[in-house]
Design brief:
This protein has about 150 residues and is mainly β. The chain has one domain: Jelly Rolls. It is built from 2 helices and 12 strands. The termini are far apart.
Length: about 150
């Protein structure tokens, strides 16, 4: 594994990589429900950031990859056209439509872009801090991979 470009970014470990989901869409575990309402477990891994993001219809986010960061994204409302491919592969990106109530995962070294066909709100839970200097030390912008 490579050495991080910022002192607040921990190196990836083989043990951490083994715990990652193997598919883009992550199956949610069984929720707990009673008279008070429900609890839906989303992520049970150590992380350093939680970000609430709103995106307007027609907007595009990402078109980058992360060297060590990963993130789970949970769609609160709306939907996301999520484009992804392994960094450096040169192959056509795959598009996965992620709908309200779904969780998806982006590991490090995956080119990705998000297109919003409608106004959307999503929660991003990430491995690394979202402080701007930490984020910038780990992100690499790429030419757009979305149509």
């Amino acid at each position: 594994m490579t050495k991080p470009d910022h002192p607040d970014i921990e190196p990836l470990t083989e043990e951490e990589v083994r715990k990652w989901p193997k598919e883009v869409i992550v199956a949610l575990t069984e929720k707990f429900e009673d008279d008070r309402g429900e609890i839906v477990p989303l992520v049970d891994l150590a992380m350093k950031s939680a970000v609430w993001i709103t995106s307007k219809k027609g907007s595009v986010r990402a078109n980058h990859y992360h060297k060590s960061d990963w993130h789970f994204c949970y769609v609160v409302s709306g939907s996301i056209e999520y484009y992804h491919r392994p960094h450096g592969s040169g192959r056509e990106p795959e598009m996965v439509l992620v709908n309200k109530g779904e969780l998806f995962f982006t590991p490090p070294m995956v080119d990705h872009a998000m297109v919003f066909p409608e106004d959307t709100v999503f929660l991003t839970l990430g491995r690394n801090s979202r402080r701007q200097e930490v984020y910038e030390a780990d992100v690499e912008r790429i030419d757009p991979i979305n149509p």
